[in-house]
Write a structure and sequence with these properties.
The protein has helices spanning 14-25, 51-68, 74-88, 112-129, 132-149, 182-195, 198-214, 225-241, 249-269, 276-291, 299-310, 341-358; strands at residues 35-36, 39-40, 45-46, 49-50, 109-111, 158-160, 165-166, 274-275, 328-330, 334-335, 338-339. With 370 residues, the protein is mainly α. The chain has a single domain, classed as Glycosyltransferase. The longest helix is centred in the last third of the chain and has 21 residues, at 249-269.
Length: 370
């Protein structure tokens, strides 16, 4: 597929070209168009297809098509969108389940967070292709989010299907409501921008207000350092969710404080365990905060983060790995055996944004943040 634009690829930064090729050709996107949560390196097989990860993939490939000028990269993005609009969407329930059914014993669940990520992926496809089907499905799913999960404060993290009953909060941040859900509420604000429907803006505002009230204690809910690193990933989702309102003093202050806090925690914990997505999220936030006049860029810290991100990429590896990024690493253990499409997408975007800043060509829009 990428051979159609071979004249473009050699001019790309090698890491970007290899990463785009991995996402498009490695098999992490399966024949259905759905995208696996990760490729298990040591076992040589993919995890199950995930609707959330497919939504991220759609946003990543539309971003890469724009960043590289390689329109052929839209083909896998569109396949992902068709999967979301077809096999992944439950038209009777008007909801995106967490995963496709895998036997009667598998509980059917839907996550608020995943729903917003899928909607943002569909909106990125709509902007890239002009296909009204993607925008229509995004709008229908966004209305369903408000109806099924609620649109005031912090909605439940998970619904049990088909009854759409909220599950009791479980262990781990992703099974509880929290400030990180603000990133998914960005989908409502993007739809407000695209449709002018006031409810979408109001629902984002309610999520923003709740997240600003609760975010300060989010990282303090774990004592284990590795689990704090996991929470940093989610905390960065909160910081990303502030971007539509970053012109407000309270949001700018929270973003500035959050960047400093994330940098400090990352520096303390990375010698024990480091996640590639956290480093990439922090670098993207630094660059966006600098562009929006919130925090002057600490160029030395940004350069160090870019170098750290690059070390997570598999190089000169078999085709199922070459160009992909690992989820994380620990000293003495090397990279974790998970070739992760979201880690790859975040890392590629962070490195490309850093390259643009270095060349003086940086113009970032929060709507394109994967």
């Amino acid at each position: 597929m990428l051979q159609e634009s071979a004249s473009v690829l050699p001019a790309l930064p090698p890491r970007l070209a290899k990463g785009a090729r991995w996402l498009a050709e490695s098999g992490i996107q399966e024949s259905s168009g759905g995208v696996a949560r990760y490729h298990r390196v040591d076992l040589g097989r993919n995890a199950r297809v995930s609707t959330e990860i497919t939504g991220y993939f759609a946003g990543a490939m539309t971003y890469l098509a724009s960043a590289t000028g390689d329109r052929a990269l839209l083909a896998p993005a569109i396949r992902a969108g068709r999967f979301l609009a077809g096999a992944a969407w439950d038209p009777a329930l008007e909801i995106f389940p967490f995963e496709l059914p895998d036997g009667e014993a598998t509980p059917r669940l839907a996550y608020f967070f995943d729903s917003g990520i899928v909607i943002r992926g569909l909106l990125s496809l709509w902007r890239a292709t002009g296909d009204a089907e993607f925008r229509g499905l995004a709008e229908q799913a966004a209305l369903g989010m408000a109806r099924d999960f609620g649109c005031e404060g912090e909605p439940p993290a998970i619904l049990a299907l088909p009854a759409k009953q909220p599950l009791a909060p479980g262990a781990g941040w992703s099974r509880k409501p929290g400030c990180y859900q603000l990133k998914s509420a960005m989908a409502w604000y993007e739809l407000y921008q695209g449709t002018g429907v006031e409810d979408f803006r109001r629902w984002y505002e309610a999520s923003l207000e709740a997240a600003l009230r609760s975010h300060d204690g989010f990282l303090l809910l774990e004592a284990d350092r590795e689990k704090v690193m996991d929470r940093l990933h989610a905390y960065c989702y909160f910081l990303e969710g502030l971007l539509p309102a970053v012109d407000r003093p309270e949001c700018a202050a929270a973003l500035a404080e959050g960047i400093e806090r994330t940098s400090r925690y990352l520096g303390e914990i990375a010698p024990v365990f480091e996640r590639s997505d956290v480093v990439a999220q922090l670098l993207r936030l630094r660059l966006l905060a600098h562009q929006y006049g919130v925090v002057p860029l600490d160029a030395a810290a940004a350069a160090q983060e870019a170098a750290s991100i690059a070390r997570f990429q598999w190089d000169d590896a078999p085709p199922r790995l070459d160009g992909g990024f690992s989820f994380g690493r620990k000293p003495g253990q090397g990279m974790a055996p998970f070739a992760n499409p979201v880690s790859t997408a975040f890392s590629l975007q962070a490195l490309e944004m850093w390259r643009q800043w270095q060349t003086g060509s940086a113009t970032f829009a929060w709507q394109t943040l994967i």
